[in-house]
Amino acid sequence: MKKEVKDVSMAVIRRLPKYHRLLKELMEKDVTRISSKELSVMIGFTASQIRQDLNCFGGFGQQGYGYDVGELYNEISRILGLTSHYNTIIIGAGNLGQAIANYPNFEKKGFHIMALFEKNPRLIGLQIRDVPVLDVDELESYCEGKNIEIGVICTNKESAQDVADVLVKLPVKAIWNFAPTDIVVPDSIVLENVHLSDSLYIISYLLKNKELNEA
Amino acid sequence: MKKEVKDVSMAVIRRLPKYHRLLKELMEKDVTRISSKELSVMIGFTASQIRQDLNCFGGFGQQGYGYDVGELYNEISRILGLTSHYNTIIIGAGNLGQAIANYPNFEKKGFHIMALFEKNPRLIGLQIRDVPVLDVDELESYCEGKNIEIGVICTNKESAQDVADVLVKLPVKAIWNFAPTDIVVPDSIVLENVHLSDSLYIISYLLKNKELNEA
DNA sequence: AATATTTGTTAAAAGAAGTACAAAGTTTTA
DNA sequence: TAAAACTTTGTACTTCTTTTAACAAATATT
After folding, report:
1. Residue A186 in 3-state DSSP?
2. Which of A16, A133, A163, B164 sits in a 20 to 30 Å window from B189, CA-based?
């Protein structure tokens, strides 16, 4: 069993997308090498933390030189599983569902959106890019035999758990939930509950306390 | 200076929205009292952590009884600053900008969306609920004297930093950024960079490692 | 009045981040 | 080309932060 499979803390994992993003930007600027110290300035973590994070997955750097940007980007892509292909469906074709279906890089990263599902008849039949919006009643029959791996929930709060229950039965391997409620699924299914409002509430907290501190 | 102004770690703060959400659900179910132990089962933190978190802001509970759900909900609302009013604008009226403008509870929580701004002429002139979509060229003149507190960036990656620079000059007090890049603003401005793809990449990581572990 | 419950808080344990430096490589200089 | 000087990683160790455990004190319930 490889090092990366065990004993890497979630704190480290959750920093990987930021490394990935920054390395992409460096590549676009044709930067080919970078030291942990330089990266530190750009990313806002200490150089030590960067070295320690990367070392959880292997020694990608070289003493006296630093890291090869392209190589490190590829390694992190591989660690994050962005070199695989995932059949994906979106339930809820409102603004948020459409926004996600239109997200430019998801297809490139292997998240292949096969269909959106919707109950509002006005939206059924639309195409978002090349992706059809189907009737949510067809969800189970459509998915039969298609090996759907990821289900994205973009419904309202009320429907979210019901949709999740259907997805669990299909079954999907992972659920990405944007409905403003914590859905519950068996442990065998990977789940990320995203709460957009959480970060807005944090902004509110910080604003309030900034004012109090300044007063 | 009150306790809550200093020395409360971000780890605690970032859990507050989850308490807030759960207490709301309890209220809707007409639950009037709850112990840290019961809350623990629902929320997935230890009872000890819940008691310690809440105690950062004051002793809201009572021995032998627990917490009054309504009172605790109000306290957390107050701590998060959700009893204040914030003038808010959204830049970018694409699907994501519209999704946020339509988010049902933001108005109720005091985030009053005054206008959306857009450069695409097809969208300019629309109304999202009662909120007008204006030309982004009018952004500065519109905001003059209106005391805009929060700016929400829903543009593409390329425009995000330019928009942020304009918002800084207005000035706004806080920026909520959904463009898939980390924007940079002076320390005096509260900033939350939200990266939707981060949680998808984590899903990808977890899927990959689940398969490796099972194999 | 006796028993049971549950908080607030202190203390201990676990986890994450920062410091320091030997080892290994790169770059410069002669 | 070879040696000296410089750079930078990987990692052991230390410090700091966060979480969990434990329990006295206070209240509720029987």
Report:
1. coil
2. A16
**Cis amide leading into B171 (omega within 30):** yes
Q: A31 is written with which tokens?
A: 């930067």
Token pair belonging to A32: 């080919």
Which of residues 58-97 of B have CB within 7 Å of strand D?
A: 62-65
In this structure, the dihedral spanned by the alpha carbons of residues A185, B180, B98 and B127, taken in order and rounded to 10 degrees, is 180
The identity of residue A12, as a single letter, is V
Please judge whether B176 and A207 are an interchain contact, meaning their C-beta atoms are less than 8 angstroms apart: no
| Residue A89 C-beta-side C-alpha neighbours within 13 Å | 30
Cα–Cα distance measured from residue A176 to residue A194, given in angstroms and rounded to the nearest whole number? 7
B95 to A105: CB separation less than 8 angstroms, yes or no: no
Which of B77, B84, B36, B85 is CA-nearest to residue B57?
B77
Whether the Cβ atoms of residue B92 and residue A215 lie closer than 8 Å to each other: no
Q: Please check whether residue B84 is in contact with residue B147, taking contact to mean a CB–CB distance below 8 angstroms.
A: no
d(CA B8, CA A213): 13
Residue B2 has pLDDT above 80, yes or no: no
CA B20, chain centre distance (Å): 12
d(CA A165, CA A119): 17
Do the Cβ atoms of A80 and B204 come within 8 Å?
A: yes
Q: What is the pLDDT of residues A56-85, one digit of tens each?
A: 999 999 999 999 999 999 999 999 999 999
DSSP per-residue string spanning A44-89: SS-HHHHHHHHHTS----BTTTBEEHHHHHHHHHHHHTTTS-EEEE
Beta strand A131-135 with A127-128 is: antiparallel
Q: What are the counts of helices (DSSP H) followed by strands (DSSP E) for chain B? A: 9, 10
Residue A111 reports pLDDT greater than 80: yes
B-chain residues within 8 Å CB-CB of A1?
Answer: 212-213
Across the interface, which of A6, A18, A192 has its CB nearest the CB of B199?
A192
Does the beta-carbon distance from B200 to A106 stay under 8 Å?
yes
pLDDT of residue B215: 67
pLDDT of residue A2: 40
Task: Indicate the residue of A195, A203, A209 with minimum beta-carbon distance to B192.
Answer: A203
pLDDT of residue A118: 98
SS (H, E, C) B19-31: HHHHHHHHHHCCC
Residue carrying structure tokens 């090092």: A3
Between CA B196 and CA A48 the distance in angstroms is: 27
Q: Which among A181, A192, A204 has CB closest to B81?
A: A204
pTM of the complete model: 0.95
Closest CA to A205 of B15, B164, B116: B15
Q: Do A160 and A179 meet the contact criterion of CB atoms below 8 Å apart?
A: yes
